[in-house]
Amino acid sequence: MSDREAMLERLAELEAEHANAVSGGGEKYVDRHRKRGKLLPRERIELLIDEDSPFLELSPLAAWGTDYAVGGSVVTGIGVVESVECMIVANDPTVRGGASNPWTLKKCLRAAQIARENRLPTINLVESGGADLPSQKEIFIPGGELFRNLTRASAAGCPTIALVFGNSTAGGAYVPGMSDYVVMVKERAKVFLGGPPLVKMATGEESDDESLGGGEMHARTSGLADYLAVDEHDALRIGRRIVARLNWRKLGPAPASSYADPLLDPDGLLDVVPTDLKVPFDPREVILRLVDGDDPAFDEFKPLYGTSLVTGWARLHGYPIGILANAQGVLFSEESQKAAQFIQLANQSDIPLLFLHNTTGYMVGAEYEQRGIIKHGSLMINAVSNSRVPHLSVIMGASYGAGNYGMCGRAYDPRFLFTWPNAKSAVMGPEQLAGVLSIVAREASKAKGQEYDEAGDKQMRAYVEQQIESESLAFFLSGRLYDDGVIDPRDTRTVLGLCLSVTHNAPVEGAEGFGVFRM
User: d(Cα 317, Cα 502) in Å, to the nearest integer?
Assistant: First the structure.
């Protein structure tokens, strides 16, 4: 099988998983939702955003490989509303009534982080029965951060808007309660801390949904609703008008007014990465399919030094960008020092950074330890940690060990991180990890004077290799929100262009200090 065929096979698997997420709670619950005259969450989003504009969905595979529905019962992403880039969060009421489970919480918290870091208005499309009660122990206490984030966003001047289409009960009532603008759909929206059964149990009072929390009551009596919509389409229209009146302005510099398409066809990205991730490839083949095809398209920095890491300057959809891309997999002292200097230069010039991962980590061995690989690897990680320009990361192939850290993996807070479907990430490769455990066990037996169980060792190694392999795959990692989505390599330029545009809602400013570098 060719590399292209292997990638296309993985993309077919990705499409199937996305279809699973889009199906929500399944045909039965989708049909029931439609019979009530309601729109599905992605239909609401499509009507909310500008016509023919893109919607960058985030974490669509959340909860993959768990007992919860793929997607986490919520849709999150960035869409353009009245020419303003907004974070959009839409409950999926076809999945257990839109109830929030632990993956819903993780996904919503990640969306709030992206909105905060990139200074985006947030629009919540609300229809949720509140917490998924069987999992309350995992979501009740940390879930309070959702409401804290809403109030802090407002205080930071990032507007928050709630369009309420159905239930917004119990803790969920605080979503409209803490939003700057609230739109409720007449005869559909229900916002109350306790529904009629709970009120009956707590106080003995007889009540109904409308008097407790109906849209009309909140518009006329409580004042919680700022706008009363006649139906869902009207609520979305009102939401668009609210955004149009925000007087929103980006604070980052604008991109170049014109730019050229890449020098190489992005379709060729399907051929670049080998099926066997141990086989190195030239990242320039990727870079020239992503960046603007200006003359020159890519100004390489230190091309003759630390050659297993390619660094250089380019533009992407008109935005200046610095690129760090792994070439031969292993990071040595030279690559680490080169990276640290390059990151400092990007911060000095207020230029965002793009990290293209394909690394097995930092080099090990007596020679390299003596030459200072720990100091130099730490130098690179220090630079990444304290850099203040926006970081974007794409895991193209392998991303193992501390190489994941030095290349701005999830723990180092890139503004966005995406994965190609063939990618793998773990503390080390499956064979290496199983081999290390085998050596440790063998030495332990020897120290005790016991004969080593070779048959058991073989079984252990096979089991560990299989486990680590499965836990390092792209779908597994994306399911746990260790990225913001698995993407088709051919879409990488478009996705990165959208992300760069989003990051420029906030000022783009480099760090003024990096702490102590051990030389």
Answer: 12
Strand partners, 392: 354, 416
Largest Cα span, the chain: 83
Among 49, 75, 33, which residue's Cα sits nearest to residue 237? Answer: 49
Two structure tokens written together for 328: 């031969």
CB 158 within 8 A of CB 118: no
CA 52 → CA 40, 49, 83, distances in Å?
19, 8, 12
Q: Which helix (H) or strand (E) holds 368?
A: helix 366-370
From the list 518, 508, 503, 502, the residue with the least C-alpha distance to 84 is: 502
Say how far apart CA 150 and CA 167 lie, in whole Å.
19
Question: How many Å apart are CA 28 and CA 22, to the nearest integer?
Answer: 14
126 touches 100 (CB < 8 A): no
Phi, psi of 267 (to 5 degrees): -60, -25
92 burial (CB, 10 Å; 0-12 / 13-18 / 19+) is buried
Which DSSP category does 267 fall into? G
Give which of 142, 141, 224, 114 is closest to 178, Cα–Cα.
Answer: 224
Q: From CA 183, how far away is CA 248, in angstroms rounded?
A: 20
What pLDDT, in 10s, does the model give residues 17-68?
999 999 988 889 888 999 898 999 999 999 999 999 999 999 999 999 999 9
Give strand pairing partners of 400: 426
Angle among Cα 320, 410, 359 to the nearest 5 degrees reads 80
Asked if residues 500 and 314 have their Cβ atoms less than 8 Å apart, the reply is: no
Residue type, 201: M
Per-residue model confidence (pLDDT) at position 199:
65
Return the structure tokens found at 47.
């009507």
| DSSP-H helix ranges across 119-267 | 136-155, 174-177, 196-203, 209-213, 215-217, 232-244
Say if CB 487 and CB 369 are below 8 A apart.
Answer: no
Residues written for the chain: 519
pLDDT band at residue 313 under the 50/70/90 scheme: very high
Residues paired with 124 in a beta bridge: 89, 162
By the 8 A CB rule, do 225 and 219 touch?
A: yes
Q: Which of 258, 396, 234 is nearest to 315 (CA)?
A: 258
Q: Burial-class residue 462 by CB neighbours within 10 Å (0-12, 13-18, 19+).
A: exposed
Q: Which two tokens stand for residue 498?
A: 């959208």
- Identify the top-confidence range among 118-132, 358-372, 378-392: 378-392
Cβ atoms of 428 and 452 within 8 Å: the answer is no
> The tokens 């390059």 sit on which residue?
342
Q: Which two tokens stand for residue 90?
A: 């839409």
Angle at 299 between CA 293 and CA 302, to 5 degrees: 155
What does the mean pLDDT of the chain come to? 92
Write out the two tokens for 348: 């000095």
Angle (nearest 5°) at CA 104 between 99 and 106: 150
